[in-house]
Write a structure and sequence with these properties.
Elements lengths: L3 E3 L16 E5 L12 H10 L7 E4 L6 H6 L4 E9 L2 E10 L1 H8 L5 H7 L11 E6 L10 H12 L5 E10 L8 H9 L2 E7 L3 E8 L2
Antiparallel strand pairs: 1-6, 2-4, 3-5, 4-5, 6-8, 7-9, 8-9
Length: 211
């Protein structure tokens, strides 16, 4: 397929804990006056979290949990933990999407990019060796979505490095995939968009390299 090229991993790893001596994990218990709010962020993270049973979504924060993060994301998970270093929040761990929230989201018109990423029925996950391929944007018709720009900004701001990965459960490699709204959007919005593909043409993960 002309729109894919095999790609070599070039990640640089470093210690992100910084030798912290005061490291704690606490269960998130919302204050009584905090309410749930629904947004494109709610939709995206709920459907991402629902891809795999017992999966964990981590969001890295810079010593601050702002109101939209709490109301639009954290409040919609039944098991949320916060990692503190030196008494400041550094990571949010989201597990078990709230079923009421998930049902409500699924009953609405889901954003086309979110729907292409997570909206289809799940396949049972089977680990297989994978190879990494880069999507070549020059073969992709550009797709714009101002609403989803908010999700991309959130991913950039809550990733520990200039890259992040998203697990998938329903993508299979075929040439028609280049018409996918998510691929058309991300191929032009990211520095690199890469796919992890196994020998049976299942795509288990996408990797976003930000500008």
């Amino acid at each position: 397929m002309k729109w894919l090229k095999q790609y070599e991993e070039n990640d640089q790893f470093e210690d992100t804990l910084g030798g912290s001596l005061n490291f704690r994990i606490k269960k998130f218990i919302p204050e009584s006056n905090v309410t749930k709010k629904y947004s494109i962020l709610t939709e995206f993270f709920l459907l991402l979290g629902a891809q795999h049973d017992d999966g964990v979504t981590s969001l890295y924060v810079h010593n601050n949990m702002d109101k939209p993060l709490i109301e639009e994301i954290m409040m919609h998970f039944d098991d949320t933990k916060v990692v503190f270093e030196n008494e400041l929040p550094t990571e949010i761990m989201l597990r078990k999407p709230n079923q009421e929230s998930l049902s409500l989201i699924r009953s609405t018109n889901i954003n086309p990019i979110t729907k292409d990423l997570f909206g289809k029925s799940n396949k049972e996950y089977v680990w297989r060796p994978v190879k990494l391929y880069k999507v070549l944007p020059e073969f992709m018709e550009k797709y714009e979505d101002a609403e989803f720009d908010k999700v991309l900004d959130c991913l950039k701001n809550t990733s520990p490095s200039p890259t992040t990965t998203l697990s998938l459960s329903s993508w299979t490699l075929k040439d028609s995939l280049k018409e996918n709204f998510a691929i058309r959007y991300l191929a032009h919005k990211c520095k690199n968009l890469c796919l992890y593909i196994d020998d049976e043409n299942n795509i288990s993960t996408i990797k976003l390299e930000f500008h």
